[in-house]
Amino acid sequence: MGRLDQEGEAQYTSMEEEKAMASNETEIRHRGIRAMPFIIGNEMFEKLGTWGTSGNLVVYFTTVFNIKHVSAAILMNVFNGTTFISPLIGGFLADAYFGRYKTLGFASIASLV
């Protein structure tokens, strides 16, 4: 790469000079996201729990509450639709107001209850 000297003419530098100039600049350290495996595990088990519950919930609606099969299926579709829409709402709340970890913690506790 070249740079301009005081007269406006290009000066060419060697790779060693470029590395020396780059090392003088502020170094950005990427430490990684330590919480990411826990977030992925949490979401994975939450989805497994949701899908495991949905099949049993139809049977529960039809036997205990004596709801017709069509109405039970409609309730399950509403439940699943709410489950799939809630990350969009949570993402908006996390970005706009609360932050990602507070929102994820609250949503995890609410899902557990």
UniProtKB/TrEMBL annotation:
Coiled coil: none annotated. Residues 16-26 have a biased composition (Basic and acidic residues). It comes from the Eukaryota. This is Nitrate transporter. PANTHER family: OLIGOPEPTIDE TRANSPORTER-RELATED. Residues 1-26 are annotated as: Disordered. InterPro entries: MFS_trans_sf.
